[in-house]
Amino acid sequence: MLKGKVAVVTGSTSGIGLGIARAMAAEGAKIMLNGFGDAAEIERLRSSLAAEFGVTVLYSGADLSKTDGAGDLVRDAEARLGRVDVLVNNAGIQHVAPVEEFPLDRWDAVIALNLTAVFQGTRAALPGMKARGWGRVINIASAHGLVASVNKAAYIASKHGVVGLTKVVALETAEIDITCNAICPGWVLTPLVQAQIDARAAREGVSVEQAGRDLLSEKQPSKKFTTPEQLGGLAVFLCSSAAANITGASLTADGGWTAQ
Ligand code: NAD
Questions:
Q1: What residues contact 218, with CB distance under 8 A and at least 6 apart?
Q2: Which superkingdom is the protein from (predicted)?
Q3: Mutate to test the pocket of ligand 1, among 59, 192, 197 (most ligand atoms within 8 A of CB)
């Protein structure tokens, strides 16, 4: 379905971004991977994706927390792959602390990556999408883009910001075959969440397995983690012709979290 298209997936060396990059490669898209990690491991990932799906897969280590890192990534993909048709703004970080103890440098770091990089990457990708008359911008927000929890001020502000930005971009591109949507996952078992489970296990003196179960039952009525594969399927659906008139939407994949 995505043969001939180029997809840039930010933060795709791990977790959800990797699941989405895999799903897009399986549909025939050329992929620009991005994110941090061990260089040999990333190269293994890049070459195995390319071999498994018979598509071009490149990698950029652009640091999206830098002022225009996301813009540089998009321009790099355009230079090396010829175009950017699908931009998945996925890279994100978390910091957990009560508001009055939340360090300003952590606030700035979360906002820079989770929100400003989405703005910068989208700004860079839209002119090419408009020139070709087709584009898909998919922002990985969160259930925390729709509702709040304690101790996550910067993350929740950033994800609510992403949901708002998604609507603005959708309106500004509404008459072109460009859509901009937010995916709002609940808990997905990735390194980002594993760190929170490990911290909870240590804090409460319970096993990591128990802490994982407690985390789920607190928020996610299905009591099942959403998977990177499911989110890959949803992102591919948003690129399909069936989804051509879905824009400005926030699609939850949260096991009922935000239905409560
Ligand atoms: P993860 O930690 O597994 O992956 C994050 C990715 O971002 C990695 O590839 C990492 O290298 C990359 N990254 C980090 N800092 C970067 C930077 N400065 N520049 C470029 N890349 C950078 O996290 P994840 O759980 O897969 O999260 C992906 C997205 O999904 C995030 O935006 C997160 O907020 C969102 N999300 C996650 C969950 C969850 O339960 N895991 C739920 C809702 C939303």
A1: none
A2: Bacteria
A3: 192
